[in-house]
Write a structure and sequence with these properties.
8-stranded antiparallel sheet; alpha+beta; 10 helices
Length: about 350
């Protein structure tokens, strides 16, 4: 039986298929061999600089052919030696590596540099200089975001699992611009679309006013945030709730601060047991191997009844939202929230994970 893991359970990390940010298995030894030749036979200045930036330079470069920490150390040292994205790109070209490898290794070097650099807190989860990768929990889309002092770039790709897009190599969207506080400013986006960051999540708002969320991951697709926590939908609702000139947006009541939050009989274990017994994995999701979590928001009234059930955050589709709403509506009465000992109505939120 297909079932879920809720709330307190840790979302298992996954490894995506090869993405442009991750060097291929053939590029790792090719880079190492070319760098070793440059180190032994190239300019004395290069040899001296690498000897300073990379302890035990020659043996480390030889070990870099097998990947892992020596490869990362060699990449990081050569990037710091070059001093910028453009200079590093030119340096790799002098090693006579293929153009595609030069691009991929440059991005990977910037990823390592960003991981070791000081964060720019005006752009949460990103750095003032470097490359990061973001992917959605349904594993259908990923973004590679590159920030340099001069300009920034966002590229959107379909994953190998995205059946709606045939071309898995080229990006479906390439944007250049600048990050201003939390917003990505570019002239090439329609006014109804925009990208922005909030609490470590890359958000994409489409022309249909749909918010999609993407979470930072390693170059191999492993989430850095465990589990990935969505932030945008609730944030936007909070913002628009106090904006009278936005009548098309739903206004949320200001919640009372309860002394005791609503609880389900049996606590979290009771919720998990109920969902295991009643949740069904939709046929459409199973047919295409779709997985991910759905966030369900609902109210528990003073009698413990569940009402106003809806989903928030990124919409996955394939029947997952409908099934999550259906099963939450079937839940038995909760123990209502209390304020000063009296039951009050309060909002609840459940994160329901669907997997094959």
């Amino acid at each position: 039986m297909k079932w879920i893991i809720l709330l307190l359970a840790v979302l298992a990390a996954f490894t995506a298929q090869a993405q442009p940010l991750q060097p291929t298995t053939s590029e790792i030894p090719a880079f190492s061999q070319a760098l070793l030749q440059e180190f032994l036979q190239g300019k004395a200045e290069t040899r001296n600089n690498l000897s300073i930036l990379l302890p035990d330079a020659e043996p480390t470069i030889r070990k870099a052919a097998k990947g892992g920490a020596p490869f990362n150390a060699a990449i990081d040292a050569t990037f710091r030696m070059a001093g910028s994205r453009e200079a590093y790109h030119s340096f790799l070209q002098t090693l006579q590596l293929p153009a595609s490898s030069v691009t991929r290794l440059t991005e990977y070097a910037m990823y390592l540099f960003a991981d070791n650099s000081k964060r720019n807190y005006l752009v949460p989860s990103l750095y003032n200089y470097g490359t990061k990768m973001f992917i959605d929990t349904a594993r259908q889309w990923y973004h590679i975001v590159t920030i340099t002092p001069q300009s920034s770039e966002i590229r959107k790709y379909p994953t190998a699992q995205n059946i709606e897009v045939a071309d898995k190599v080229n990006p479906v969207l390439v944007l250049t611009g600048q990050f201003k506080d939390k917003n990505f400013i570019t002239d090439s986006l329609p006014q109804t679309n925009f990208y922005f960051f909030l609490d470590g999540v890359l958000g994409e708002q489409t022309g249909e006013n749909e918010i999609r969320e993407y979470f930072e991951c390693t170059p191999t697709g492993v989430f850095l945030q465990q589990p990935p926590v969505p932030v945008y939908a609730f944030y936007l609702q909070q913002q628009t709730a106090t904006t009278p000139e936005s009548p098309s947006q739903e206004s949320l009541p200001v919640p009372q601060r309860a002394d005791e939050a609503p609880t389900y009989p049996g606590g979290d274990d009771g919720v998990t047991l109920f969902l295991k017994r009643h949740l069904r994995y939709p046929d459409a999701a199973g047919r295409y191997g779709i997985s991910g979590y759905v966030i369900v928001r609902f109210d528990v009234d003073t009698r413990g009844k569940v009402k106003n059930v809806k989903t928030i955050g990124v919409k996955i589709g394939y029947g997952l939202e409908d099934e999550a709403i259906r099963v939450v509506k079937q839940m038995s009465d909760w123990i209502p929230a209390k304020l000063n000992g009296n039951p009050i109505e309060a909002a609840c939120q459940l994160r329901i994970w669907f997997d094959k």
